[in-house]
Amino acid sequence: YGYENKSPKPPMVAEGMFCQQLLGIPPSDRKMKESAKYLSAHLPNARQKDYYYWYYGCLSLYQHQGPIWKEWNERMREILINSQDRGGKDGGSWNPNGDAHGNRMGRIVSTALSTLSLEVYYRYLPMYSTEYGKN
Asked: 124 in helix, strand or coil?
């Protein structure tokens, strides 16, 4: 999935994957496997912040489940917890500086996306489960 052309970009692949999941495309579908593989090659990196990408990556890979979700989630959780501001007037929030979209979205949006990324499994059940807690 691309934005202005067909060249894939990590945020668009994560977003497109989640949209396909909402349309009922199963994780066994070729598109889903290809998207998961692409995202596994573009794991979160603390030196390249992109809260928007990370949020959609959390949504899509949580729904996809499997080893890629476990690896993504472990990395994501560590990055977000370690980068959260701990003191002062901004304590508890996430600094947008250094983020791919930071100048446009600011501290409130970076904090909202970080929080939503950390709690994805508290807000959603996996779509492809036949029973709560099983995939």
From this structure: coil
Question: 122: which 2 tokens?
Answer: 């508290």
**Residues ≥6 apart with Cβ < 8 Å to 5:** none
Distance CA 96, CA 2 (A): 24
- The answer to whether residues 80 and 94 touch, using CB atoms and an 8 Å cutoff, is yes
pTM of the model: 0.88
Tens digits of per-residue pLDDT, 90-111? 999 999 988 888 778 899 999 9
Q: DSSP letters along 26-90, please?
A: -TTSHHHHHHHHHHHTS---TTS--HHHHHHHHHHHHHH-HHHHHHHHHHHHHHHHHHB--SGGG
